[in-house]
Amino acid sequence: MRSLLKIFIALSIIVGQANAQSAYRFKFNDGPFSNWFIGAGVGPQVYFGDHDRQADLQDRISTGYQLYVGNWFTPDIGARISADGYKVKGLTQALAGHDVHSTGELYDAQDQLYKQEFNYYKVHADVMFNIMNYFYSYQADRFYSFIPYAGIGVMSVVDEPKATRLSFNLGASNDFRINDNFNIVIDVRGNLVGDGMDGEYGGRKFEGMFNSTIGLKYTFN
Fold first, then answer.
1. Fewer CB within 10 Å, N or C, the chain?
2. How far is CA 61 from CA 53, 56, 92, 174, 209, in A?
3. Quick one: signal sequence residues (predicted)?
């Protein structure tokens, strides 16, 4: 967590210095909390582990939650720290108690597949790029903004066997303006982690997750 804070602070200093020399500014630069935002969301998520593709998609979908705080350094460049998590559903070929997060409930007798569940959290720092402001200039009352982002962080499984892996994130935030402070946000993202996050090693270098959340974002002005 300290490493992520250092990354976020470094980004703030570097981009903030560039913004100080920028020829254009936007109205949120006046107050002590100007340009800062906080948000939360909830939505479906799907994990891609060793045996998960052998399950029907609807049996793999679980609910994920997201909290974040960030800052816009310029109208088109910002950064945030985000925390995601809750429960992952999938499949495993081992019985409960064999260290692979099996629930013990049989899913497919022919392939000896059992249902799998584990709780996790993911913390990451993202660099954000407001496409609309970059190509069409800044507008405070713009209804829709498309904001792709990329980031790095850590993902940890909190159930035994515990695991922690470096996480690489790529996604996009779709912001719909309600008023000067509130936006409805649809966030779609994916991340890659090293093999073994789900307790099984299948000879692949990576496992992954897809998340989609809908929520609210509050911007200070």
1. N
2. 12, 9, 16, 22, 11
3. 1-20
